[in-house]
Write a structure and sequence with these properties.
By secondary structure, this protein is mostly beta strands. It is built from six helices and 27 strands.
Length: 361
Protein backbone atom coordinates (compact mmCIF):
# COMPACT_ATOMS: atom_id res chain seq x y z
CA UNK A 1 0.00 0.00 0.00
CA UNK A 2 1.32 3.36 -0.93
CA UNK A 3 1.68 5.69 2.01
CA UNK A 4 0.32 9.18 1.60
CA UNK A 5 2.60 12.07 2.60
CA UNK A 6 1.15 14.60 5.00
CA UNK A 7 1.45 18.13 3.61
CA UNK A 8 1.94 20.79 6.30
CA UNK A 9 0.30 24.10 5.35
CA UNK A 10 2.75 26.88 4.54
CA UNK A 11 1.08 29.20 7.04
CA UNK A 12 1.62 26.70 9.86
CA UNK A 13 5.30 26.28 8.92
CA UNK A 14 5.82 30.05 9.13
CA UNK A 15 4.07 30.19 12.51
CA UNK A 16 6.30 27.39 13.85
CA UNK A 17 9.46 29.05 12.56
CA UNK A 18 8.51 32.43 14.00
CA UNK A 19 7.73 30.77 17.30
CA UNK A 20 11.31 29.47 17.40
CA UNK A 21 13.19 32.58 16.30
CA UNK A 22 10.96 35.23 17.90
CA UNK A 23 10.32 38.75 16.68
CA UNK A 24 12.75 41.56 16.10
CA UNK A 25 11.94 45.24 16.02
CA UNK A 26 13.02 47.58 13.28
CA UNK A 27 14.79 50.84 14.05
CA UNK A 28 14.86 53.89 11.78
CA UNK A 29 17.88 56.15 12.19
CA UNK A 30 16.79 59.76 12.71
CA UNK A 31 20.36 61.12 12.69
CA UNK A 32 23.66 60.07 11.15
CA UNK A 33 25.47 57.43 13.21
CA UNK A 34 29.10 56.45 12.70
CA UNK A 35 31.22 54.22 14.93
CA UNK A 36 34.18 51.88 14.89
CA UNK A 37 33.50 48.59 16.72
CA UNK A 38 35.89 46.61 18.91
CA UNK A 39 36.74 44.32 15.97
CA UNK A 40 37.71 47.31 13.81
CA UNK A 41 34.52 47.20 11.70
CA UNK A 42 33.09 50.62 10.88
CA UNK A 43 29.33 51.12 10.87
CA UNK A 44 27.83 54.12 9.10
CA UNK A 45 24.13 54.95 8.98
CA UNK A 46 22.31 57.95 7.52
CA UNK A 47 18.87 59.30 8.49
CA UNK A 48 16.07 56.96 7.30
CA UNK A 49 18.41 53.92 7.15
CA UNK A 50 17.14 50.90 9.07
CA UNK A 51 18.56 48.20 11.31
CA UNK A 52 17.08 45.42 13.42
CA UNK A 53 16.77 46.03 17.16
CA UNK A 54 17.41 42.85 19.15
CA UNK A 55 17.36 44.29 22.65
CA UNK A 56 18.44 47.06 24.99
CA UNK A 57 21.79 47.84 26.60
CA UNK A 58 22.26 47.29 30.32
CA UNK A 59 21.94 51.02 31.00
CA UNK A 60 18.58 51.19 29.13
CA UNK A 61 19.95 54.20 27.23
CA UNK A 62 20.95 52.22 24.11
CA UNK A 63 19.51 49.71 21.68
CA UNK A 64 21.37 46.51 20.80
CA UNK A 65 21.29 46.49 17.01
CA UNK A 66 22.04 43.93 14.29
CA UNK A 67 22.97 45.01 10.77
CA UNK A 68 22.05 43.16 7.58
CA UNK A 69 25.38 41.29 7.59
CA UNK A 70 24.91 40.11 11.19
CA UNK A 71 27.19 42.67 12.87
CA UNK A 72 25.91 43.59 16.33
CA UNK A 73 26.56 46.86 18.15
CA UNK A 74 24.95 49.42 20.47
CA UNK A 75 23.28 52.69 19.43
CA UNK A 76 22.18 55.49 21.81
CA UNK A 77 18.38 55.70 21.78
CA UNK A 78 18.36 59.31 20.60
CA UNK A 79 19.66 58.13 17.20
CA UNK A 80 17.07 55.44 16.56
CA UNK A 81 13.27 55.27 16.47
CA UNK A 82 11.87 51.81 17.19
CA UNK A 83 9.06 50.88 14.79
CA UNK A 84 7.32 47.83 13.32
CA UNK A 85 7.06 46.05 16.66
CA UNK A 86 5.99 42.42 16.24
CA UNK A 87 3.12 42.74 18.72
CA UNK A 88 1.39 45.47 16.69
CA UNK A 89 -0.72 44.98 13.62
CA UNK A 90 -2.99 46.07 10.79
CA UNK A 91 -6.74 46.44 10.43
CA UNK A 92 -8.24 45.05 7.21
CA UNK A 93 -9.92 47.80 5.14
CA UNK A 94 -11.41 45.57 2.42
CA UNK A 95 -12.31 41.92 2.06
CA UNK A 96 -9.01 40.67 0.66
CA UNK A 97 -7.11 37.38 0.28
CA UNK A 98 -4.38 36.08 2.59
CA UNK A 99 -1.69 34.55 0.34
CA UNK A 100 0.99 31.95 1.01
CA UNK A 101 4.55 32.47 -0.24
CA UNK A 102 3.72 30.90 -3.61
CA UNK A 103 0.84 33.30 -4.23
CA UNK A 104 -1.96 30.84 -3.52
CA UNK A 105 -4.93 32.04 -1.48
CA UNK A 106 -5.04 30.65 2.07
CA UNK A 107 -8.37 32.24 2.97
CA UNK A 108 -10.34 35.49 2.65
CA UNK A 109 -9.77 38.20 5.25
CA UNK A 110 -12.76 40.20 6.43
CA UNK A 111 -13.43 43.89 6.94
CA UNK A 112 -12.05 45.21 10.29
CA UNK A 113 -10.24 41.94 11.01
CA UNK A 114 -7.10 42.53 13.08
CA UNK A 115 -3.78 41.09 11.88
CA UNK A 116 -0.51 40.87 13.81
CA UNK A 117 2.44 42.33 11.93
CA UNK A 118 5.43 40.03 11.24
CA UNK A 119 7.57 41.83 8.66
CA UNK A 120 7.50 44.02 5.56
CA UNK A 121 7.81 42.52 2.07
CA UNK A 122 7.68 45.44 -0.35
CA UNK A 123 4.07 46.16 -1.30
CA UNK A 124 2.94 43.30 0.91
CA UNK A 125 3.07 42.62 4.62
CA UNK A 126 3.65 39.26 6.26
CA UNK A 127 0.93 39.00 8.94
CA UNK A 128 -0.61 36.52 11.36
CA UNK A 129 -4.40 36.24 11.70
CA UNK A 130 -6.22 35.54 14.97
CA UNK A 131 -6.74 31.89 13.91
CA UNK A 132 -2.96 31.41 13.69
CA UNK A 133 -2.71 31.40 9.90
CA UNK A 134 0.22 33.41 8.57
CA UNK A 135 0.56 34.82 5.08
CA UNK A 136 0.93 37.86 2.85
CA UNK A 137 -1.52 40.73 2.31
CA UNK A 138 -1.41 43.70 -0.05
CA UNK A 139 -0.74 46.80 2.05
CA UNK A 140 -3.26 48.79 0.00
CA UNK A 141 -5.99 46.73 1.68
CA UNK A 142 -4.73 47.45 5.21
CA UNK A 143 -4.82 50.34 7.64
CA UNK A 144 -1.11 50.94 8.42
CA UNK A 145 -1.59 53.29 11.36
CA UNK A 146 -1.95 50.50 13.88
CA UNK A 147 1.32 48.87 12.91
CA UNK A 148 3.39 51.65 14.40
CA UNK A 149 5.14 51.09 17.68
CA UNK A 150 4.52 54.19 19.81
CA UNK A 151 7.66 55.67 21.38
CA UNK A 152 7.47 58.30 24.10
CA UNK A 153 9.48 61.30 22.96
CA UNK A 154 10.03 64.66 24.65
CA UNK A 155 9.27 68.05 23.10
CA UNK A 156 12.44 70.15 23.17
CA UNK A 157 10.55 73.20 21.86
CA UNK A 158 6.97 74.41 21.99
CA UNK A 159 5.13 72.64 19.16
CA UNK A 160 2.14 73.87 17.19
CA UNK A 161 1.05 71.21 14.69
CA UNK A 162 -1.83 71.22 12.24
CA UNK A 163 -2.97 68.28 10.09
CA UNK A 164 -5.50 70.26 8.07
CA UNK A 165 -8.38 69.31 10.36
CA UNK A 166 -7.07 69.54 13.91
CA UNK A 167 -4.47 71.60 15.76
CA UNK A 168 -2.15 70.17 18.42
CA UNK A 169 -0.22 72.36 20.89
CA UNK A 170 2.58 70.76 22.91
CA UNK A 171 4.63 72.55 25.53
CA UNK A 172 8.39 72.22 25.78
CA UNK A 173 9.23 69.27 28.02
CA UNK A 174 5.91 67.46 27.49
CA UNK A 175 5.71 63.83 26.43
CA UNK A 176 4.97 63.13 22.75
CA UNK A 177 3.64 59.95 21.09
CA UNK A 178 6.07 59.30 18.23
CA UNK A 179 5.03 56.65 15.71
CA UNK A 180 7.22 57.07 12.62
CA UNK A 181 10.09 58.95 10.99
CA UNK A 182 10.06 60.07 7.35
CA UNK A 183 12.77 62.14 5.62
CA UNK A 184 13.24 64.89 8.22
CA UNK A 185 10.04 64.79 10.29
CA UNK A 186 8.33 62.64 12.93
CA UNK A 187 4.76 61.40 12.72
CA UNK A 188 3.09 61.85 16.10
CA UNK A 189 -0.38 61.20 17.54
CA UNK A 190 -2.59 63.08 19.98
CA UNK A 191 -4.76 61.39 22.63
CA UNK A 192 -7.54 60.91 20.05
CA UNK A 193 -5.16 59.14 17.61
CA UNK A 194 -5.10 62.11 15.21
CA UNK A 195 -1.87 62.11 13.19
CA UNK A 196 0.52 65.08 12.72
CA UNK A 197 3.88 65.78 11.08
CA UNK A 198 6.50 67.52 13.25
CA UNK A 199 10.09 68.53 12.50
CA UNK A 200 12.65 66.12 13.94
CA UNK A 201 14.41 69.09 15.55
CA UNK A 202 11.42 69.60 17.86
CA UNK A 203 11.54 66.19 19.56
CA UNK A 204 14.10 64.17 21.50
CA UNK A 205 13.59 60.41 21.52
CA UNK A 206 15.45 59.88 24.77
CA UNK A 207 15.66 62.67 27.30
CA UNK A 208 14.17 63.24 30.73
CA UNK A 209 11.49 65.97 30.90
CA UNK A 210 13.22 67.63 33.84
CA UNK A 211 16.41 67.87 31.79
CA UNK A 212 14.60 69.57 28.92
CA UNK A 213 12.87 72.08 31.17
CA UNK A 214 16.07 73.38 32.76
CA UNK A 215 16.51 77.11 32.31
CA UNK A 216 19.53 78.42 30.47
CA UNK A 217 21.01 79.51 33.80
CA UNK A 218 20.91 75.91 35.10
CA UNK A 219 22.89 74.45 32.19
CA UNK A 220 26.68 74.52 32.54
CA UNK A 221 28.19 77.07 30.18
CA UNK A 222 30.28 75.40 27.49
CA UNK A 223 33.98 76.01 28.11
CA UNK A 224 36.88 75.66 25.72
CA UNK A 225 39.25 72.93 26.82
CA UNK A 226 42.68 74.39 27.61
CA UNK A 227 45.67 73.44 25.51
CA UNK A 228 47.58 72.43 28.64
CA UNK A 229 47.03 72.12 32.35
CA UNK A 230 48.57 71.24 35.68
CA UNK A 231 51.53 68.89 35.97
CA UNK A 232 51.20 65.70 38.00
CA UNK A 233 53.86 67.11 40.28
CA UNK A 234 51.14 69.22 41.91
CA UNK A 235 48.53 66.44 42.03
CA UNK A 236 47.14 65.08 45.30
CA UNK A 237 48.16 61.58 46.32
CA UNK A 238 44.72 60.19 45.45
CA UNK A 239 44.60 61.92 42.08
CA UNK A 240 48.10 60.69 41.30
CA UNK A 241 47.13 57.11 42.20
CA UNK A 242 44.07 57.29 39.95
CA UNK A 243 46.06 58.77 37.06
CA UNK A 244 48.86 56.22 37.41
CA UNK A 245 46.39 53.34 37.46
CA UNK A 246 44.64 54.78 34.42
CA UNK A 247 47.97 54.67 32.57
CA UNK A 248 48.15 50.90 33.18
CA UNK A 249 44.70 50.46 31.61
CA UNK A 250 45.72 51.95 28.25
CA UNK A 251 45.08 49.35 25.57
CA UNK A 252 42.34 47.57 27.54
CA UNK A 253 39.36 46.73 25.30
CA UNK A 254 36.27 48.91 25.07
CA UNK A 255 33.28 46.85 26.21
CA UNK A 256 29.95 48.62 26.48
CA UNK A 257 28.43 48.42 29.96
CA UNK A 258 31.55 46.88 31.57
CA UNK A 259 33.57 48.16 34.55
CA UNK A 260 36.58 45.90 34.20
CA UNK A 261 35.38 42.32 33.88
CA UNK A 262 36.22 42.04 30.18
CA UNK A 263 36.96 45.69 29.48
CA UNK A 264 35.51 49.13 30.09
CA UNK A 265 33.22 51.70 28.57
CA UNK A 266 33.99 55.39 29.17
CA UNK A 267 32.04 55.82 32.41
CA UNK A 268 32.92 52.27 33.48
CA UNK A 269 36.62 53.16 33.49
CA UNK A 270 36.05 56.25 35.64
CA UNK A 271 33.67 54.34 37.92
CA UNK A 272 36.22 51.57 38.46
CA UNK A 273 39.14 53.93 39.11
CA UNK A 274 37.29 56.07 41.63
CA UNK A 275 35.84 52.95 43.24
CA UNK A 276 39.34 51.54 43.78
CA UNK A 277 40.97 54.62 45.29
CA UNK A 278 38.13 56.53 46.98
CA UNK A 279 34.97 55.93 49.01
CA UNK A 280 32.95 58.16 46.67
CA UNK A 281 29.66 56.63 45.54
CA UNK A 282 29.75 57.52 41.88
CA UNK A 283 26.82 57.28 39.46
CA UNK A 284 27.32 54.71 36.73
CA UNK A 285 26.54 56.67 33.55
CA UNK A 286 28.40 59.65 32.07
CA UNK A 287 25.16 61.65 31.98
CA UNK A 288 24.63 61.16 35.71
CA UNK A 289 28.29 61.85 36.50
CA UNK A 290 28.05 65.11 34.55
CA UNK A 291 25.44 66.44 36.98
CA UNK A 292 27.37 65.87 40.22
CA UNK A 293 30.56 67.36 41.63
CA UNK A 294 32.16 70.79 41.56
CA UNK A 295 32.04 72.59 38.23
CA UNK A 296 35.56 73.48 37.06
CA UNK A 297 36.59 76.21 34.64
CA UNK A 298 38.53 74.87 31.67
CA UNK A 299 41.66 76.81 32.58
CA UNK A 300 41.62 75.45 36.17
CA UNK A 301 41.77 71.73 35.42
CA UNK A 302 43.62 69.48 37.83
CA UNK A 303 44.71 65.85 37.56
CA UNK A 304 41.77 63.61 38.42
CA UNK A 305 39.07 65.96 37.09
CA UNK A 306 36.42 64.52 34.81
CA UNK A 307 35.83 65.94 31.31
CA UNK A 308 32.41 65.59 29.72
CA UNK A 309 31.60 65.70 26.02
CA UNK A 310 28.49 65.77 23.84
CA UNK A 311 27.76 64.12 20.53
CA UNK A 312 28.13 66.34 17.48
CA UNK A 313 25.04 68.50 17.05
CA UNK A 314 23.58 67.49 20.42
CA UNK A 315 23.53 68.88 23.95
CA UNK A 316 23.31 65.43 25.51
CA UNK A 317 26.36 64.13 27.41
CA UNK A 318 27.69 61.05 25.64
CA UNK A 319 31.32 60.67 26.80
CA UNK A 320 33.55 61.15 29.83
CA UNK A 321 37.32 61.13 30.17
CA UNK A 322 39.84 61.42 33.01
CA UNK A 323 42.16 64.42 32.97
CA UNK A 324 45.70 63.27 33.86
CA UNK A 325 47.59 66.55 33.64
CA UNK A 326 49.75 68.26 31.05
CA UNK A 327 46.85 68.69 28.64
CA UNK A 328 46.18 64.93 28.37
CA UNK A 329 43.20 62.72 29.11
CA UNK A 330 42.71 58.97 29.31
CA UNK A 331 39.40 57.56 28.16
CA UNK A 332 37.71 54.42 26.85
CA UNK A 333 37.13 55.13 23.15
CA UNK A 334 34.29 53.37 21.37
CA UNK A 335 35.71 54.42 17.98
CA UNK A 336 39.17 53.03 18.76
CA UNK A 337 37.78 50.02 20.61
CA UNK A 338 40.12 50.45 23.58
CA UNK A 339 41.36 52.78 26.32
CA UNK A 340 43.64 55.45 24.90
CA UNK A 341 45.47 58.64 25.91
CA UNK A 342 44.71 61.78 23.93
CA UNK A 343 45.64 65.46 24.01
CA UNK A 344 42.58 67.51 24.94
CA UNK A 345 43.59 70.05 22.31
CA UNK A 346 42.33 67.75 19.54
CA UNK A 347 39.59 68.81 17.14
CA UNK A 348 36.91 66.47 18.52
CA UNK A 349 37.48 67.45 22.12
CA UNK A 350 37.62 71.17 21.41
CA UNK A 351 34.36 71.04 19.47
CA UNK A 352 32.42 68.64 21.71
CA UNK A 353 33.64 69.62 25.19
CA UNK A 354 30.74 70.45 27.52
CA UNK A 355 32.17 70.99 31.00
CA UNK A 356 34.45 69.57 33.69
CA UNK A 357 33.72 68.45 37.24
CA UNK A 358 35.89 67.76 40.27
CA UNK A 359 35.20 64.96 42.72
CA UNK A 360 38.47 65.06 44.66
CA UNK A 361 39.38 67.61 47.33
Amino acid sequence: MQKSKMRIPTGLIIVLVLGLIGFKDTGIFVSSFNARLNNGVEVNYSPNNRAEIIGEGASKTTYHVESADGTRFYVPKEYLLKVDNGVNGYTVLNNTPLYDNSGEVIRLLFLDEYLTFVENRGDQALVRASDGLTGYVNKSDLDPDRIRNIVEGIAIDNINANNGTNTLNINKGDSVKVAWFERDYFIIFDEFENKYQVSKNSISLFEKPEEVKKSVEDVPVKKIVPMSGDSRVNASATALSIANKAETLIGSPYVYGDVGKAGYDCSGMVYALYGEFTDIKMPRSSRQMAEVGELVEGEDLQTGDLLFFTSSGSSTISHVGLYVGDGMMIHASNNQGKIIKDPISGYYFQNNFSHARRWLD
